[in-house]
Every structure is written in C-alpha cells, then in structure tokens.
Amino acid sequence: MISLERLRSLHAVEAYGSLHAAADALNVTASAISQQIAKLEREVGEPLLERRGRGVALTDAGQLLTGHAERAFSVLRQAEAALDARRAVVAGEVRIGAFATVMRGLAPQALRSLASDHPQLQVRLQEMEPLEAIELLERGDIDLALAQDWANRPLRVPEGLERAPVYDDIADIALPSDHPLAHHDTVALSDLAGDTWISWREGSICHDWLMLTLRAQGREPRVQHFALEYATQLSLVGAGLGAAVLPRLGRGAVPDNVCVMPVTPSLTRHVYALWRSDAARRTAILAAVAAFKNAGAL
C-alpha cells in the first residue's frame, strides 16, 4: 500500500513548487522530502519527479498520483471532522487568516470570546490579504479565511470551499479638508469622477473594485498613489494628494486635515468566513465562524 506520508511529500512539492518550499511547509529538510519521494518512486515503480532547469517538476505519473492524493487527503479530513463533531468539547487548533480591518475591527472580540468559551481551543491568527488567505486555505495551510467582496463585484469562491456571511461594512469617502465638497452632508460619487484617487495595491480585491466603480461613472479613473494601510492613505489625502475610500470597520483616528463623508450611492462591502468543504463539521471552525459573526453583531 502507498505510504500516505510519502504521498504527502509529493503533494507538497506540487503545491509549493519546489523541494525546499515543500520542506518548509512540512517542517522537514529538503533532503527528507527527496528521500520520501525516492521511496515512493520505488513503491510505484515509476519516476515521479524530473529535473527542469534548476528545479523539479512532476512527471505524468506524479501528477496522476497527486490528483488521487488530494482526494485521499480530503476523505481523511472528512473523517477527522466527523470524529471531531462527536466530541462535546471544542478543542485542538484552528488557523485563521484575516485582512487588516478584520484584524482590528472583529478579531479582538472574536478571539477573546473563543478564549473564554472554549479554553481548550488554540487559535493562531495571521494577517494577510484575502486572495492570499484563500490560496492558503485551498492548500490546507490555514483552516479559516476571512475575505471580502463588494456589492457590485462579488467574490468567486473556488470549488471545494464554503462560506458564510460575517459582516456588512459601509464605506465613506475621505477628502482633504479644503476640498470644495468637504463638509457637505453627503457627496455623490459622480461628483468625484474627475478627482485624483488614492487606492490599494494594484491587483488587490479593493483596487479592482475601485476601478470598476469609478469607471461606472463614465470616466477613466485617475489613480495616482497606492498604499496598503488606511493610515497611509489618509496621510496622503490630508496632504491634498487625492480622495480615498474609507470603510468604517476597524477605522482608526482621522487626521484633522481630512474630512470623511457618506457617499451616494452607498458603498457596501461584505465580509465572509471561508473554510474547506471537507472540514465543514469541525467544531473548531464552526465555533470560530460563530465568534466572528457575534463580534460583528456588537
């Protein structure tokens, strides 16, 4: 019978792209990965890796085997989840990836309630962008991802993942305090179509959404500056360098030289929790999802 541990080594090489990356993911040495795969090749009687430039690639037999491996691992995860569901106590470890505003606005209360309600549960929380979190979730490197989309740009959920709504967040517009529209009760997005904008990193969910939303106003957006952190964006807004979108969740202090205004039509983003379908019955995941939902309801 094929060894699952050796199969896991081959699967890791495919998932992470190299022997060294696979070794880092499995907390072993690259030599140990090579030895496991060499033993696996002897078991199946075929080469599973081939040299390609300075790296390695899976042979046809290796790709065939890892396809079956993923299904085997999924069955094992379902079995673990079914056993976990029989237990009365929420315990073990749950690994969570969340983006910055969730880390500030929801995670502190959610983790505090998990610690209080389920003292035998160990939570590991890591800040990351939603697309990165979804990729790690698909690979099995985390158990729960907190991601987002916007009302006019829904998130595509990859096959094999499930999601649940956690929180709906409203975003406002941040303008320099000397902007002609500053201090109005509200501002129409169409009135800002010709302004310079400060956005998130290109290729991110929020940047792509902003470009789509501004183009819907009939003009090509003028995005001049890019910053990951809202505090940085607000500093640039305060310097008169452009306008920015500012969600309310996890919002910190707003500089005196920045005016934050509601916008029409309203800008709504949705926060979701995502997990692997084969782990849907794990009590630790269910408890973590409930904790984030409850934090959003406060």
Automatic annotation (TrEMBL):
One of its GO terms (cellular component) is protein-DNA complex. Keywords: DNA-binding, Transcription, Transcription regulation. The keyword Transcription regulation applies. One of its GO terms (molecular function) is DNA-binding transcription factor activity. It comes from the Bacteria. It holds the Pfam family LysR_substrate. Residues 2-59 form the HTH lysR-type domain. Belongs to the LysR transcriptional regulatory family. This is LysR family transcriptional regulator. It comes from Gemmatimonas aurantiaca.
